[in-house]
Amino acid sequence: MSKDQLRPSDVLEKIERVRQARRRKFYLREEYITLSHGSGGKATHNLIEGVFAEAFANPLLDRMDDAAVFAIEAGRMALTTDGYVVSPLFFPGGDIGKLAVHGTINDLAVAGAQPCYLSAGFLLEEGLPIVTLRRVVESMAAAAAAAGVTIIAGDTKVVERGKVDQIYLTTTGVGRLLADWPLGQSHAQPGDIVLLSGPIGDHGIAVMLAREALDIECDVQSDTAPLHGLIAALLEAAGTGVHCLKDPTRGGVATSLNEIALSSEVSIALDESAIPVRQDVRGACEILGLDPLTIANEGRLLAIVARESVENALAAMRAHPLGREAAVIGEVRGTPAGMVFLRTDIGGTRVLDMLVGDPLPRIC
Amino acid sequence: MCLGIPGRIIEFVDETHQIAKAEVSGVRRNINVALVLPEGLEPGDWVLIHVGFAMSKIDEQEAQETLRLLRAMGETYTDELDMLLKSEIE
Amino acid sequence: MRFVDEYRDPQMAQTLAVEIARLTEGRPLKLMEVCGGHTHTIYKHGIEDLLPRTIDLVHGPGCPVCVLPMGRVDDAIAIARSEGVIFTTFGDMMRVPGSRGSLLDAKAQGADVRFIYSPLDALKIARQNPDREVVFFAIGFETTAPSTAVTLLRAQAEGIKNFSVFCNHVTIIPAIKAILDSPDLRLDGFIGPGHVSMVIGMRPYTFIARDHRKPVVIAGFELLDIIQAVLMIVRQVIEGRAEVENQYSRVVRPEGNRKALEAMARTMELRPFFEWRGLGFITHSALKLRPEFAAWDAELRFSVPGIRVADPKACQCGEVLKGVIKPWECKVFGTACTPETPIGTCMVSPEGACAAYYNYGRYSMAAERANLPAIGLQTPADRTAS
C-alpha cells in the first residue's frame, strides 16, 4: 500500500494513537525549573507527572483530585505543619526532603500520635536544576516509605530567581492519637525524670560545617530520623507514666527544656556528665566555641516520665535502634519555677538558658 | 578571652605556606603553623590552636609536671588528713 | 581529649578546694581573673560553688568583644555597608550593639556580612572574589593579633589588593595598669591570662609584682588550672611573696612566642590611646597597622564616621570590670540589660562578666535567697552503670 493510497480514517487513527500515547507519557524535556512550571498549564502538569507522581505514587494521590479523601478511625487526631528552609539542601546524613518528612512525623509523634498522612508544598526558585528537585523528591519518598507514612497531597509554586533559595518546603501531617492521657510540655511534674534518647548536636554541627566555609573536616552526620517508632515503644512500655515528649530541634536541648520548665512551671536539674555528646561533635564545638546543649537535633527525643516508670521507659528506649544510647539526664523539681540548671562535673551549678539568636562560632 | 584548643599535628599539607593538618577530638582542620615552626614541629606534636593558627607547642614534659604537682598537692593534703585523723584516734 | 580531660578531675578539684579553704580561713581574698576565658570556665564548671567563701573572684576586662566601644562598632557597620564590600568577622562580634544596631542588623538590611573562623579565611574570600572588597574585622588581645599579622604578611606577599583589615586589636597590660591605678579597688592578686601570655611571655607582668606587690599566676583554662592557680596565689599571699608564676607551663614559655611578637611588630604599632567600653580612654592600649601596610588598612581605605559614642548612662560596666561592684549589683542587670537586649559591654559576649553571671550564675543566687538545697540528683542506679 503506497502513501497516496492512505485513507483519511487511517490518518485520524494514527493521530489518535499518538495522542493516547502522549497522554500516558510525559515529556519533561527541560533541565531547569522555569516560571512556566508554576503556571498551572501543561508544563506544571509535566512537572507533576514527571517528578512527583511517580516518586510519591499511592492510590490516594494518584487520583490527582484537588483534595485527597480518606477515612479515619474514630478517635482523636493530631495535625501539624512546618516549613523547611535549609542551606545547603544536601548535607552529610540528610537533605531538605528527608528533614521535612522526619520533622513533621516527629511533631506528630511527640504529641503522642501515630503519623498517617503527609502533604507537601514546594516553593521552587526559577532556574533550579530538575535533577536537584528530583533528588529531594526521591529522598522524601524514600523517607516517607521507610517511616510507613503516605504523602497524599501536594502543591508546587515557582517564583522568580532570587525570591527563594532553591527549594522551600512545607509539610503538613495528620496522625491518630495513641496517648489518651494529658501529654505535652505543660505536664512535667516535680519528681519526674528526664530521659534523652542519644548523643546531641549531630544535626546542627553537620549542617553548620556543610554550610559555612569553616574548613573543618569531620565525619559528623545529621541525626535526622523519624521518632514515631521509638515513641510508640516508649508509650507502650511506660503508658501514662510518660508526661512530656519533645524533639530538641532548633535551640537544642537547652531551649526545649527551658520551654518545658516555663510551660509546666517547674524547674529542671540536669547532670552535665550524663548528657551524651559524640567525640567529634564535642571537638567541633570546642574549636568553634559552641555549647552542644544549644545545637539542633532532628532525631533525638527528650522524654519526661514519672519516676516509677523510668526503668520501663529506659529499657524500651534502649531496645529501639534510635534509643540505644538513651540515658537519664536529670530530674524535674518544683522550684525555682521556669529555670533549668546543670550540675557540673565538680558538683557546682549553673543556669542553662535558652539559646539567644543563632549559635555563632566565637573566638573568645 | 581567647579560645584555644589543643590539637595534634597529623601531617604537613603545604610547606611553603606553612600549613599543617591538625586533629582535635576526631575533627580535622588545616592550620597555619608558621608561628611555632622555630620550636621545631613534627607530626604527632600537640599545639595550642587559636583562630586557625598554632600559637604554641604543648610541652608534654611540662604537662606531666603540672599533673604531678597537682597530685602531690592532693597527696600532701590526704597525708595531713590521715595524720589528723590518726591523732584524734589516739 | 588530651591536655583537657586530665585537667578536669573533679576529685582533685575538691581536694585543692579544701586546701584553699584551710589556708584562707579567717583571711578572705579578692582575686581578679583578667581573662574572659577564665570567667567562662569558672561559670561553666560552677567553680565559685566549689571554692570557699573566703575567695572572691572578680571578673576582669579581658573580653575583647566587650571592651570595644560603640563608636568602633558603628565604624565597622559603616564599612560593612559600603558598596561592594564583603565584611568578615568572628561570630562573637555579630550581635554586639553599636549606637544604631549590630552587624547582624546591618546584614538583615543587605550588607554582606560573613562570619569566619580564621583571618586566613577572609584572605581566601578575597582571592575568590577579586571584584569585591573584602574587609576583616580584627578584634582581640595579643593572642589574636599575631594571626592578623601573619594574614597581612601573606596579603602583602601575594599582592592581594582587595583585602583590608579594620584593626581593633588591644593590649592587656595597659588595661591591668588602669585597673591597678583605680583608687576604689582592692585586689589581692591576679589570675593571669594564659593565652595572651603564650604570646607576650611572663616579663610584662613583672611590674604588678614589683611595684604593686600583687601576686600574678598565669593560668590555663581547665578546671584544675584555675583552682591550682588560686591555690598558688593563696600560698604567695600567706608566705608574703609577690611574684609572677606560671601555672600554664605546658603552653606558656617565659619569653612568650618571639615569632608571633615579630610578626606583630612588622605589621602593627601602638596607638597613642584607645577607648575601652566601660574603662574610658587608655594610653597605648591598642594597635593599628603600620604605615607600610596603609594599602591594607580599612580605616584609611573606607570613610568611617569615627564618632565617639558615650557608654549608656544606666550601665555600670566600668565598675563591674574594675571589680568595684558585682554584676548583679548593677541597676539594670537582668531587667533592662539581658543577653537578648544588652545595654553594657559585659552583657554582650557570653564570657562578659554580666552575661556569664546571667547565664550561669543566677541559680546560686536564687538558691541562696530561697534557701534551697544544693542540687543533688537522685536518679536510678542504672545511670551510674551506663
Helix content of chain B: 25-40%
Q: In sequence order, what are the helices and strands of chain A, one letter per element? A: HHHEEEHEHEEEHEHEHEHEHEEE
CATH architecture label of the largest domain in chain A: 2-Layer Sandwich
SS class of chain A: alpha+beta
What's the rounded overall pLDDT mean of chain B? 87
* Assembly state: heterotrimer
Q: How many structural domains of chain A?
A: 2
Q: How many domains, in number, for the residues of chain B?
A: 1
Helices and strands, with pairings:
The complex is a heterotrimer of chains A (364), B (90) and C (386).
Chain A: H1 8-24, H2 42-56, H3 59-62, E1 77-84, E2 90-91, E3 94-95, H4 96-110, E4 113-125, H5 130-147, E5 150-159, E6 167-177, E7 193-196, H6 202-211, E8 216-217, H7 228-238, E9 242-246, H8 252-264, E10 267-271, H9 279-288, E11 302-305, H10 310-319, E12 327-333, E13 340-343, E14 349-351
Chain B: E1 5-14, E2 19-24, E3 27-32, E4 46-50, E5 53-57, H1 60-89
Antiparallel strand pairs in B: 1-2, 1-4, 2-3, 4-5
Chain C: H1 10-23, E1 29-35, H2 36-45, H3 47-50, E2 55-62, H4 64-67, H5 70-81, E3 85-89, H6 103-108, E4 112-115, H7 119-128, E5 133-140, H8 145-158, E6 163-169, H9 172-181, E7 189-193, H10 194-200, H11 206-212, E8 216-219, H12 223-238, E9 244-246, H13 258-267, E10 268-270, E11 273-276, E12 280-283, E13 287-289, H14 298-301, H15 317-321, H16 353-370, H17 382-385
Helix pairs in contact in C: 1-12, 2-16, 8-13
